[in-house]
TrEMBL record, chains A, B:
Top-rank taxon: Eukaryota
Name of the protein in question: Uncharacterized protein
């Protein structure tokens, strides 16, 4: 079984002591950041609905309402699902991390191992969702003359600014997950070198 | 400094002994698989060019040639760049892994640590590229009636089958990178529990 390494050594030098407590606190902080960014990203994406009236050609005075919603594209649906999973996961793993921090023994290697395994998986899911939403969003923003896909952001500005913000937040979620994995790997390899 | 754990113990039980040598060999195998899938994925995507003649309406006998190439979409350009980086990285890390395997001492924790750090980063890059290409490719395959983006795969079948194959191969590359990270984390945590 794993040995517990985060016991505070009164005789040790202050910088080392600080370093052995640090990763756990940073871990909880990063999980909170992941929760916040993923939650806001989902909310911003889900509330992006925009309705616009377009005049009907040849019929003066008549307009039709066209609605832009996130669920009109499978990429955005996947994005919302992936970020929701990340949000839920950050709550569960964050609470577990706090319990581990509050335990007198400190960090447990086994839990840390399971966290890295799931963090990496989720990192891939969120990165793929960000890529998919970013790829489709870019077409909406700039269009593609080769395939004659017209840009939609000139007509649906509010919708587009919503999803641009959402994608930016998902980028922060991805970076947070990357940092979480790096931190755990660093903590694991530090335990070996001790 | 790290201790070296892969020395063959003649007195040890066979399953444990096998386990201590296994990860290094699997690591090299996975890096070779990553190299093969990333390389083939890039080649298939780059060679996806398709030219098709379309008759000009109202002018009988006259046709115009329309070319479909991967570099007509920024998502596909990013995809090719990301998979090329993955391919190059797999060569460098694979060769280093083989050197480590051939060294009498076996696995080095420090190198393994650096490998995980880079593997995770690359996993995110490849997953995002797969997502972006998949998202745009899906529009090409099915179109989007809400934004009036017409599907192009009915006209450019060969181009589309090329990029479908390429995206599938990138999925295998992503899974390989995920397994590489999991393997390294498993090897690291196994060293702690010893």
């Amino acid at each position: 079984m794993s040995s517990i390494d985060t016991t505070v050594k009164p005789s040790g030098p202050p910088p080392e002591n600080k370093g052995s407590i640090g990763p756990g606190v940073i871990d909880v902080g990063l999980r909170f950041l992941l929760f916040a960014t993923a939650l806001v990203s989902v909310i911003v994406m889900v509330t992006s609905k925009q309705t616009k009236l377009f005049p009907v050609p040849m019929v003066p005075g008549l307009s039709i309402a066209i609605v832009a919603k996130f669920n009109q594209s499978p990429a955005f649906i996947y994005f919302v699902v992936a970020l929701s999973v990340a949000c839920l996961y950050s709550v569960i793993s964050g609470v577990l991390s706090i319990f581990v921090l509050m335990k007198p023994g400190g960090n447990s290697t086994k839990l840390q191992f399971h966290f890295v395994i799931l963090d990496v998986l989720l990192f891939g899911i969120v990165a793929a969702a960000m890529g998919a939403a970013g790829g489709v969003g870019y077409i909406g923003f700039r269009g593609n003359s080769h395939t004659q896909w017209k840009k939609v952001c000139n007509d649906f500005g509010s919708f587009c600014s919503h999803f641009a913000a959402s994608i930016f937040l998902s980028l922060i979620s991805s970076i947070t997950l990357l940092l979480l994995v790096w931190l755990s790997v660093y903590a694991l390899s530090k335990k070996i070198s001790k």
